[in-house]
Amino acid sequence: MKELVNRILPSDHQYWGLSTRRILGAKARILLKFMIRSLHHPYKRARRMRKLRYQKGTRSHETVLVLGLGPSAGALSAEAIRSKQLDDALSVICVNNFFRSELAETITPDMYVLADPYFFGRDRQSDDKSWREIWIYLESHPNMTVFLPDNCNVPEDYRISNCIFFNSLGLEGFTKSINPTKPRGFLSMTVYYAIAIVGYLGYSRILLAGVDNTQFRSVALTSDSKPGMGANHFYDSKISPVVPMQHFAQDGMAAFFEDVARLFADLHLFGHLPVENLDPQTIVDAFPVASDWRAFASGGA
To answer: What is the phi-psi region of residue 19: left when phi exceeds 0, alpha when psi lies from -120 to 50, beta otherwise?
Structure first.
């Protein structure tokens, strides 16, 4: 049944190509999914996002660093960033598995964004409890602001004192919205949510590191000729096993590279924000490179 649905209504992890039928089917799937999910607890969703709405534009004249997990984050100076934090010259927002990295030993984020179902105990093996580690970390930093999708909850065993919810609905291709209180127009990438959130909060300067979209450099085939991924994050070992990418198994490499193309295109939705990249060798063409990137780099200016 699932294969039949995917043939008629392709997901964003399938290859659309130039096929009118596939593109229309994919658009129909996005719209259908939106309609079904928008009817699920609409008043609860609106109530949960009230706190975020109150904070719109409250961080004007401030600078923030959005820390993704791509390789370029490994070139940062943790000491330089921490020093700027202590001087109240910089806020830091991190995502997903940042807490597992060496940078986390020096840098304590001011804000943290989670959106991957894995961190809420979904999409994992029943005996895998590693997803709980992030909640232990967040619980041990009560001053940190944690942003979560409105359709997720903090696991009942943990207490997060400062939690803010953002809109989890997607309308990719139907809207260009990056407003985190409204359905998004970009692919569901946690670090993209982070950029949308700091833009909404009104930061006058938004610095990026680790937002590379260079995962294609680590892609490889598994033993059964399916798409797999090797070392892709700045904290990964250089020698990492190739892990199968199950969501691209059906249409293979064509679907993977089409997805990468959409990731690059979606970053242009944020082009009106004051975003600057700290990676001087970036291939992300949506934002300029910061003139003072050396001040944040390992080794100093």
So the answer is: beta
